[in-house]
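User: Fold this; tokens only.

Assistant: Input:
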Amino acid sequence: MEKMAKKFFMLSLVIVMVSGLIFASDVSAQTASKPLPKMFVWASLTMGSLGNSQSMGFGETVKKSTGIPVRIIPAAADMAGFLPLRAGEVNLCYRSSGATYSLSCGIGQAFGAEEWGPQPVRVVWAVPLLISFATRPETGIKTYADIKGKRFPDYKGWDVGEWETEAILAAYGFTWKDVVAVPTAGYTPGIQALIDAKLDIADIAPEASLAFEMQAKRGIVWVESPKDPESIKKWLTIAPFFTPGWMDRGVGLSSEKPCWGTVDRYLLVAYNHLDPQIAYLTTKALWEGYDAYKDMHPSLKFATREFALDYKALIHPYHEGSVTFFKEIGVWTSAMEAWQKEQLAIQEKRRSAWEEATKAAAAKKIKLTDPKWHNGVDGMWVEWLRANNLISIPKIEYHEYKK
């Protein structure tokens, strides 16, 4: 009887073990990663631009880490970068957070169109982009409170610039009647107009070559952003991507002479349908490859791990593959998890809100091609988003400068 019991026990054990192996094999088959592509493809900015140079450095780092080459496709227009991203023709896109804000919310002439609407944008990596407003010494402007009666750029046709100027006016309770509006075609024409003394203030990146030119020809003064919570809130309600923050590098700036200006972001983004394995490997490569890329371009030494984890200033959730990596190395916190769930919920609600709002617009005979619908300042759609708390507002507070 004892021998029979032992045989029965051993037979049962074998059956359990075999069953377990079969079950494990089945689970493994279900969760097996897709084969990786022979090449990663990213859309970036135009050749010679800061964004393109940075993405080239990141691409080389990913190649060193994964063994898979990264092809960078220059795309001047945001649509040229985001269209192949949506179609899955490129894996990732490198763009400013002003552009990704427009895409994720579906606002502006391009992305407020019927075939677009709010898109499920995910962040894989974040990089600081210093860009603020500057003036000439003789204007007397020190903070945005001093712009009353001054020649102020009217960036009609350039959505991001228009949202930034509207945010400035809103923060200080100004309207366009309080300034002298000067029609300005865009970023570069605005800087040139400032150099030529046709404008009193303009948007400019302190590390750009035009900033050095302005310093040499006219001198440069960086304008101080609002510090009080209410003004910051008004500012971010209009331009949540254009966050007040400390600038301490570039023309006229240093750790000894910083300015509470603004800090935008370059974001390496994907759609939610990107293979999580690709997002995971990319995030892992950049996290572990700081020493490899930091000297590839002067600006890349500021593309730190800490900045990439600064979720409070982001307006999109991370990609699930990136989250997996952050959890794996123990840097993902409960606060980040709560924030991530909130961002995912906002994106999900935006899509259903879009359906409701477009029907309401049709009932009012407002076409989606009409600025009354897609305008990012006071259009029907952006007002609908704000009324339903469907725009992610970063948690930004004034703080003392720290090196």
